[in-house]
Every structure is written in C-alpha cells, then in structure tokens.
Structure to design on (110 residues):
C-alpha cells in the first residue's frame, strides 16, 4: 500500500469524501471509522432532535451508521458533498423510523 492509500481522507473535500465512501463500499473499516469520526456529532444531533429519549437516539445512530455501511456504494453515487449525503441519510433513516412508529401507534388507536 502507498502512503496515499493509508492516509485518512478529509470528508470536507467533495472528491476525497466520495473516495472515502467508495472505500467504505469496498469494506474498508478504516475509511468507515474516518467517516464516522468526521460526522458523529452532527448525526447524533439529528438523532437526538428526532428521538424523544437518548436511548432512542442511540438506537437511531446504530441504524444510521449500519445503513451507511451497507449502502455506501449507492450513497457514493449521489450528488453533493459527503457531509450533505451523510446528514441527509441520517435525517431520512430517522424520519422513516419515526414515521413507522407513528403508523404503528395509529393502528393501535384505531
């Protein structure tokens, strides 16, 4: 491996960020760790905003990051910065979950 291949990439740069997502899609755990470290605070803030309890936010974080790990190849094909892709993914994954909970709750009431 060359030095370039082992250096963590800055997700702030759109090109290197998409390269980072590409590496995550290939199963690169170091790239995933770098991506997680770069956006953990912002994704957790989204989860806290969308969830009623910290324990729910923690579970949402797990869902968000598992989704990113599993769908990195498709996410890499999206337009926009890596930051916008990761944060919109966090918003979407937590939105889908809260919408499902509302639907389940409404079924119980009826």
């Amino acid at each position: 491996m060359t030095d370039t291949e082992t250096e963590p990439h800055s997700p702030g740069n759109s090109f290197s960020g998409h390269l980072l997502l590409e590496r995550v899609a290939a199963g690169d755990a170091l790239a995933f760790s770098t991506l997680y470290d770069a956006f953990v605070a912002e994704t957790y803030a989204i989860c806290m905003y969308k969830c009623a309890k910290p324990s729910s936010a923690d579970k949402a974080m797990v869902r968000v990051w598992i989704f990113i790990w599993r769908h990195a190849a498709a996410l890499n094909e999206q337009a926009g910065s890596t930051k916008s892709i990761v944060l919109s993914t966090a918003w979407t994954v937590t939105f889908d979950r809260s919408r499902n909970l509302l639907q389940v709750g409404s079924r119980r009431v009826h």
Q: What stands out?
A: Confidence is low (pLDDT under 50) at residues 1-10, 100-110. The CA atoms of residues 24 and 33 lie 9 Å apart. The first helix runs from residue 3 to 6. The chain is about 80% helix and 0% strand.
